[in-house]
Amino acid sequence: MSVSPSADTLAPPAGRTVVLGSVEPLKLDSGVELGPFTMAYQTYGALNADRSNAILVCHALSGDQFLAGPNPVTGRRGWWDNMVGPGRPLDTDRYFLICSNILGGCMGTAGPTEINPATGKAYGLSFPVITIGDMVKAQKLLIDHLGIEQLFCVIGGSMGGMQVLDWAVRYPEKVFSAVPIATALRCSAQNIAFHEVGRQAIMSDLDWCDGDYLAQGKRPERGLKVARMSAHITYLSETALHRKFGRRLQDRPKVSFGFDADFQVESYLRHQGKSFVDRFDANSYLYISRAIDYFDLAAEHGGKAAEAFRGTKTRFCVVSFSSDWMFPTSESRALVHTLNAVAANVSFCEIPTDQGHDSFLMEIPDYHKVLAGFLNGAAEHRGLTRR
Amino acid sequence: MNGAQNGAAAIARGIRLDLQKIAELVKPGSRVLDVGCGDGALLYHLTHTKQVDGRGIEISQEGVNACVAQGLSVIQGDAETDLKDYPADAFDYVILGQTLQAMREPKTVLSQMLRIGTRAIISLPNFGHWRLRLKLLFTGRMPVSDALPHNWYDTPNVHLCTIHDFVALCDELGIAIERCYTVSAKGSIREVRPTSSAANLLGSEAVFLLRD
Known about the structure:
The structure holds two protein chains of two kinds. Chain A has two domains: about 270 residues, Alpha/Beta hydrolase fold, catalytic domain (Rossmann fold, 3-Layer(aba) Sandwich); about 100 residues, Rna Polymerase Sigma Factor, Chain: A (Orthogonal Bundle). Chain A is built from ten helices and ten strands. In chain A, helix 2 links the parallel strand 7 and strand 8. Chain A is globular, with a radius of gyration of 21 Å. By secondary structure, chain A is of the alpha/beta class. By secondary structure, chain B is of the alpha/beta class. Chain B has one domain: 3-Layer(aba) Sandwich (Rossmann fold), CATH 3.40.50.150. Chain B is globular. The N and C termini of chain B lie far apart (about 40 Å). The interface between A and B is medium-sized, with 28 and 25 residues.
């Protein structure tokens, strides 16, 4: 798919949208009020008569609302296609799935690429800085709009997992069960550091135009590509990289004594960067990565994360992956200890795999079995019958 | 085969004798923590026959994954380090089946169990059983039996004790023994006085209901 440097390449794709915050604007953590604003979302399966089978799926940094089936922007299958469908953990014969593009995103929900109704121009950097909490507050408006009193489950990996935790803390009575996957109670210094590398790559690109590239008919593709390349390394493990590419050369018998992509791993990263640029917005990347940096549940509760969960009735299932060094098992274990400290109902599994942080997107039999089993157990407690 | 079928199969098979006795001691609808819950057989049994609010801790990843896949609330963790995270009196019963003797610090674990639970239920192999005594006496070798199937060099049981040893520890810690049962080598279960010498001789395993 080729992309011409203009704003309309990132126009909202086909899908469902709703205007929220019309009656009362959304109060952001920064103090800014946002509204009315658009939210793009997709649903899968059917809502049951007593509206008790809804699962909110929270997507990660580079995800979107197109959970399963063909993605109209990329032409590829949805990012969690292997998890969704009859007989799969997110069983559409049993559950009603909702996935919305996050606040600050670039797939139809209000973000820096969207038109500011007040000015008639794209927000760009005039879009307010947002937090994980703001994303969740916006999702809550969508859930209210859909007339759902309580979500059967909120589930998500990575930044999606942070939203899951924020949901469970902010609206405990609305979350029957919560599945935070490959995530943490707060963003680590190392992750902030990697985000900063990505942001600097974008902002160093002259085509970024101090954030005003849309108005100037440009896109900071080189910067965004480098940001994605560096981030992509953090999603994999050393073992998986070695297994996939080793030191193998790319379509050549020997090294070129130059700076072309001699190695397969270089070629792979360049491809990942390029395909990301085709579907993602650079300013969105700045805003979303910043929201992750700011996430710290303990800080919001007087330094004690356990206080955030005190009295919770939500059933938790925490999942980590053995080779994830971006959100290592130790972070999930800290979350589990926090939940134990308030005697919360929690399950915790570490899935053995060498596929790194990206494992949460993969079809790993143990992982899917655990999720399906947990959801099934929770559904029995919630009184959800199979259709 | 899905998780529910696995669990149902476990019930149909019947659970281990000491676990059956433990299950009998648990009041319906109570809050239970099963420490070292293995593949979740007892927890599944308690959840489905006694409607308990059940949780588990299990050290092996395979065990945890099997439990969670059955819909049980189980975390991967080490009882020796993780029990301290729980608040006091979070459970009505904290259960430890055939595991105390494998702990590095059984005394601490026992105290922690009765801090976070109103009652503790513990089952143990009895090293005072007459067969073990005779084996040591006549062969001069470390006894190996059905209840203690390991050799001295590969056993996980680093802190074996007799019923009387355990009773002495409870005395020292100020723990009240509310009930004591022995399981004979042939599988018959009887309630006994914990200080009974006959029980210490004839019981292959013992089950204790404890209270702080």
